[in-house]
Write a structure and sequence with these properties.
The chain has 426 residues and is an alpha/beta fold. The chain folds into two domains: 152 residues, abc type-2 transporter like fold, CATH 3.40.1710; 196 residues, no CATH class. The protein contains 14 helices and seven strands. The strands form two sheets. The chain has a five-stranded mixed sheet with strand order 2-1-3-4-5. The chain has a two-stranded antiparallel ribbon with strand order 6-7.
Length: 426
């Protein structure tokens, strides 16, 4: 029976209970965890709880196609009176009624510039006048047009506003009709009291495989998360490969020899790898969402190019922040690209229905810009004025900003001799 030396036991060390009893070890993670939880709760819940209470100049089209003639005792067709009454009686500052022609309204619906529309048809006055005669064939109609491409909640809010405005107009017209027909039967009085039929229909339909207008948001979220996570994976992998961080997978631990390299060259390596991997992540996202799941997606080459540039812009931004802030860079990047970006994206809750703080963030937060570009490509025929032009400009600014900020910080650190800490040999 072969004999051998017994395996060496590691020297006794500190016990977990001893470590946990030291108050100092709790301070930094405890304070940071509490602050992050508090801020995330305020950010996410603060923007969604009462969207109707925070309406601010939500753009909705108002179309008066009524050709008259004016009713006895009136100087204009009834449609003009309805439109003027709707604008005058809307709560100030909540809705921005855009009085447009039918063609103009259709163009703004097709570019996502309005969340919906209320249309008075050509025969509205004649249909109302016929109600007090034996020539009535159908109830007058007001059309509430939705725009699902701007998001299901935004379109729904606009639809509620247009339907409420149409119903108020119907009651006002009903008072006039009842006064003009005092001898009407009780059945006719019920009809005349609320004479207008409000019909809801899509003003700019979108495809069936679009998640009711949410596919643009989730696709954009995938782009941001892919750029964010890929950049952090590259950041950690490069630091490990260059010997500036330990590699630990399960029970296996290793440490590579440290390669002398300054911060600027390290950032160049990380950004180069991020650019290369953005090609892979973009292709995988499109393969999964379009190829396997069947998401409606016209303009595929343009969508791929836009997606790649979006992922790249986020990834380079993360690398620049990590290079500038070091160990807390990933937390800072998380707030910049995710925590602050999601509630201010306007993708689920329109910015016109959020507090002013979120509208301020939406002017520059990256996800807001990317959602506009993706929506334009997926729902609005890639129109520049539907948000695509602004998205391209903001992506370009983001790329330039990441390069300038990242390399300015690393060159400053290098000139100051602030080299990275070299791990001690084991």
């Amino acid at each position: 029976m072969a004999s051998g030396n017994p395996p060496q036991q590691p020297p006794p060390g500190a016990r977990a209970g001893t470590v946990l009893r030291h108050a100092k070890i709790w301070v930094v993670p405890g304070v940071l965890s509490a602050l992050v939880a508090l801020l995330l709760s305020l950010l996410y819940m603060g923007g969604i709880l009462t969207p109707s209470d925070h309406l601010h100049r939500m753009p909705i089209a108002l179309v008066d196609s009524d050709t008259g003639p004016a009713l006895p005792g009136h100087t204009t067709p009834l449609g003009a009176e309805v439109a003027a009454s709707i604008v005058a009686n809307s709560p100030p500052g909540q809705v921005q009624w855009r009085v447009l022609t039918r063609a103009q309204a259709q163009d703004e619906l097709a570019s996502g510039k309005v969340y919906g529309a209320l249309e008075v048809p050509e025969d509205f006055t004649r249909s109302v006048a016929a109600l007090t005669t034996d020539r009535a064939s159908a109830r007058p109609v007001l059309a509430a047009l939705t725009n699902p491409g701007v998001g299901s909640l935004g379109s729904s809010l606009a639809s509620q506003i247009t339907q409420q405005a149409a119903h108020r107009s119907s009651l006002e017209i009903g008072k006039q009709l009842l006064a003009a027909a005092p001898q009407a039967s009780p059945t006719d009085q019920l009809l005349l009291a609320d004479p207008v039929d409000v019909q809801v229909r899509p003003g700019h339909p979108i495809g069936r495989h679009t998640g009711l207008g949410l596919s643009a948001f989730y696709y954009t979220l995938l782009l941001v998360l892919a750029g964010f996570l890929s950049a952090n994976l590259v950041h950690n992998a490069v630091d490990t490969s260059l010997g500036y961080a330990d590699s630990e997978i399960g029970p296996w631990h290793s440490r590579r020899p440290t390669l002398p390299i300054d911060r600027t060259q390290t950032l160049l390596v990380k950004m180069g790898m991020t650019a290369g991997l953005s090609l892979v992540t973009t292709s995988m996202i499109m393969l999964a969402t379009i190829g396997l799941l069947g998401m409606d997606a016209p303009h595929l080459p343009l969508l791929w190019l836009f997606s790649f540039c979006a992922c790249l812009s986020v990834g380079l931004g993360v690398q620049a922040i990590n290079a500038a802030f070091g160990g807390i860079g990933q937390l800072v990047a998380m707030f910049v690209f995710i925590a602050l970006a999601l509630p201010s994206s306007g993708a689920t809750v329109p910015l016109e229905a959020t507090p002013g703080f979120y509208r301020f963030l939406g002017a520059f937060e990256p996800m807001r810009q990317l959602v506009g570009g993706v929506r334009s490509i997926l729902y609005f025929d890639a129109r520049a004025d539907a948000g695509l032009a602004r998205a391209w400009v903001m992506i370009a600014l983001g790329l330039v900003g990441a390069l300038v900020f990242g390399f300015a910080m690393t060159r400053y650190y290098d000139r100051k001799g602030l080299t990275r800490m070299v791990p001690k040999p084991s």
